Amino acid sequence: MISIIVTGHGRFASGLLGAVEQVFGPQAQAIAVDFPPELGTAELDAALNAAVTSLPAGSGVVFLTDLLGGSPFKLASQIALAQSQPCDVIAGSNMAMFAEVALERDEIASVGDFVERAQDAARAGVASLRERLARQQARASAQDDGL
Predict the structure, then answer these.
(1) Alpha helices, DSSP H only, in 6-147?
(2) Domain ranges, residue 33
(3) Tens-digit pLDDT profile for residues 4-35
(4) What is the pTM of this model?
(5) How many domains does the chain have?
(6) Strands 61-65 and 30-35
(7) Which of 45, 76, 97, 111 has the most crowded Cβ, counting Cβ within 10 A?
(8) Which residues form the PTS EIIA type-4 domain (predicted)?
C-alpha cells in the first residue's frame, strides 16, 4: 500500500486528513504533518522526515501538499528526491483527490499511477454550480427537442 503524508500551512494537513477520516473512516499509512505559524522550517523538515521513517518501506510514499512552491512543498520535494523507495509530491491537494486515492490505494500499482489518479480526481472535484446547472438544463432541453 502506498503511504500518504499530508502537509501544508496552518492546520491544513490535520484538517484534510480529519475530514477524509470523518467521511470514510481511519486511513492506514496516512499521516498529517501541520506547519503552524510557530513552527520553523527546520522543525517541519524534522517532522516530515520522522513521518517518512515511521511508515513501512516498499510500496512508496506520496506527499500531498497545499501550495506549489510553499515551504511544505519544497521540504517534501527535497525529502522525496532523497528517498530510495518510489516517492512523489503533489501540490494543490483537495479532499476529492485525497478521498479517491486513499480508498483505492490497494488497487493502485505504482506511485506514478497514484499521482495520475490523484490529479484526475482533483480536477474532477473542482466544479461550478452555475456551470453544472447550465449543462443539466442544456441536456434536458436537448431531450425535450428530441435530440
Answers:
(1) 12-24, 41-54, 71-82, 95-104, 111-124, 129-144
(2) 3-144
(3) 999 999 999 999 999 999 999 999 999 999 99
(4) 0.89
(5) 1
(6) unpaired
(7) 76
(8) 1-126
